[in-house]
Amino acid sequence: MPAFEPYSVWAPIAHDVRLRVSSGESPEGSFEGPTDGDTQTIQLHRDAQRSGWWTCDTIAQPGDRYGYEVFDGTAWSKPLPDPRTTSQPDGVHGRSQVTDPDFEWSDQLWTGRGLAGQVIYELHVGTFTPEGTFAGVVEKLDYLLELGVTTIELMPVQPFGGERNWGYDGVDWFAVQESYGGVQGLKELVDAAHNKGIGVIMDVVYNHFGADGNYNGFFGPYTAGGSTGWGEVVNISTHGSDEVRRFILDSACQWLDEFHIDGLRLDAVHSLDDRGAFSIMEQIQFEADEVEARTGIPRVIIAESDLNDPRLITPTANGGYGLAGQWVDDIHHCLHTVVSGENHAYYEDFGTIELLADTLRHGFRFRNNWSGFRGRTHGRELDLSTTPPWQLVTYTTTHDQTGNRARGDRPSQNLTPAQQVLKAAVIYFAPFTPMLFMGEEYGALTPFPFFCSHTDDELNRLTREGRFREFARSGWEPHEVPDPSAPETFESAKLDWEFTDEQKAIFDAYSTLLQLRRDLELGRSDLRDLQVEHGPNWLTMGYDDVVLAVNFSSTEISLPVGGDLVYSFTSPTVTESSTTLDEWGFAIIAR
């Protein structure tokens, strides 16, 4: 609820609505049981100007604790959190709190960052540091600068049930998880990052609501039936969807404007039931453009999509949605399978250096061609004459690619240091926008399994059994899957910041590769300029002035590529006309 405005709520299905509110000086907690004498019950009336809205004359004051009671024609509900709550100090089942939007910003010199030229670092606030807070992230900003990161991407920070969650079970899309530091903590992190020259992107989930603490159905048609696999489909295409779309757009605008967030990563947009002539993604981009025009600071929108659909990043003038970028799993899958040898589940469509070379040249592996895993043709070709490669975000791993494994084991728990750094060299040499997942830069040996702490034991049971069934289809046994709700599953995911000598070497390699990416200007603007050659166990990728030579095998190989050695993690021999690479070795060569 915005401060200094009359209390109001969209509740088109309600027969009656009343407000329960107490001042900020009243005791904290829920409305369960006896309430203090300061609590008022205020009757709301239908808003004559806005269909489906209820309002009153009482002005929301910062610190007020409140909830709405909804009459469905038969009975009154208990006091419920506001669907647009900006703060839930007592969790998703407690009272909402009015927040003060004012904040003493000190980032006036921040000019922002477009997507081109960025190095993104994805992190989970709760496990990135021992503190598990925004303040803990602030303490690591200098470390990230040393590494070469330009932008951090926060996994979702909206409130969820309990204290431990990946964040994709969020229910209050305008609020911030209190245990991380709440509204104040997030603003302090953004302010501190900007003063260090680091941008902040937020991962937001608009395709489903979490099951724990979602009371929106008492108020209106926020969902439309059907399942995304994670929750009921959000209603952006059927009766009442205009207000649900506005709900999403206002949420996005709040982060970009009030919180000074530099961009949003839209989770799993392929799960949106979006049948409007104007895509919700296009509308979100429009909101971002409005904020950018007003502030002069770039705002980027990045989609996660499994569709290989160029429309996402095609300009609106050419019939697209105009987003700045999208995640591309295809390059990850090609690289992962070639190095690890895994070929189960969706990896069956990858696994050869030929496919890796083809995907590096085209951005997408699937371009209206057959996918054995899907049992159908998939994707559409990018127009490389109008699509700069920086619009594609690539990576050696992500929270999904690590966490959606039975044990949540990282590549660094299964690969040698040479193999880890080799993968990084391919990603950072390529002209796409690179992203790291927290800890990979030093070969972290802590897993990142899925974890949650729903306040309902039955939800925890269903989540646990659902994970068992999901992994059984990929050949994993139940005993290999950690209990998502167990505290030790969450604790196992916390990064260990005491580096071994081997981890220090990996970190140095990562930071060197990222520095070379800048020095050699490898984020080039036309993918058609990238020259890629390959053999049964090797690949070269580069330009007339610089090339990366890679050995994807455990035996020494020689390639007819020569010049001056710029960098390698191993011990190659480079002459004017040839290069000999040791096992799982690579060389960056100036020619």
TrEMBL record:
Q: Keywords for this entry?
A: Carbohydrate metabolism, Cytoplasm, Glycosidase, Hydrolase
Q: Where in the cell is it found?
A: Cytoplasm
Q: Which NCBIfam families match?
A: trehalose_TreZ
The region called Disordered is annotated at 77-98
Residues covered by the Glycosyl hydrolase family 13 catalytic domain: 118-469
Tell me the domain of life: Bacteria
Q: What is this protein called?
A: Malto-oligosyltrehalose trehalohydrolase
Under the heading PANTHER family, the entry gives:
GLYCOGEN DEBRANCHING ENZYME (PTHR43002)
Q: Which family does it belong to?
A: Belongs to the glycosyl hydrolase 13 family.
Which reaction equation describes what this protein catalyses? hydrolysis of (1->4)-alpha-D-glucosidic linkage in 4-alpha-D-[(1->4)-alpha-D-glucanosyl]n trehalose to yield trehalose and (1->4)-alpha-D-glucan
Q: Which InterPro entries match?
A: GH, GH13_cat_dom, Ig-like_fold, Ig_E-set, Trehalose_TreZ, Trehalose_TreZ_E-set_sf
The pathway noted for it is: Glycan biosynthesis; trehalose biosynthesis
Source organism of the structure: Corynebacterium breve
The EC code for this enzyme is 3.2.1.141
